[in-house]
């Protein structure tokens, strides 16, 4: 009985692969070709599109979460929290106008201005408490 269900599952998997929307990509892969994302016609969302821009390489002060600041010495957690709590910003220089920033904090922000970028807030990235605690722990 177990063998029958195993065979049935294998046949279902093979049949499903052959008749799916990704058939051209799978056929190309099976023939030794390379599968490109565009060939597979996979759906994309606004976050994927944003990651393909400068946002994927810099900290977007209107959309990033506090954990993204961890890789930059001197910015996490205090300065990162202040930047996140006071967003959104119209331009990058507005970060230096955050109320209560000390001279040392302003200096650290100025030293790191090249790692920041800015774009309009995206609800998929800023809703809820994900900016403060996105649950990604390393």
Automatic annotation (TrEMBL):
BP terms from Gene Ontology = photosynthesis; photosystem II stabilization
Q: Organism's domain of life?
A: Bacteria
What protein name applies here? Photosystem II extrinsic protein U
Give membrane topology per the record: Peripheral membrane protein
* Family as reported in the entry's similarity comment: Belongs to the PsbU family.
Q: Where in the cell is it found?
A: Cellular thylakoid membrane; Membrane
Supply the InterPro entries for this chain: PSII_PsbU
Q: Which UniProt keywords apply?
A: Electron transport, Membrane, Photosynthesis, Photosystem II, Signal, Thylakoid, Transport
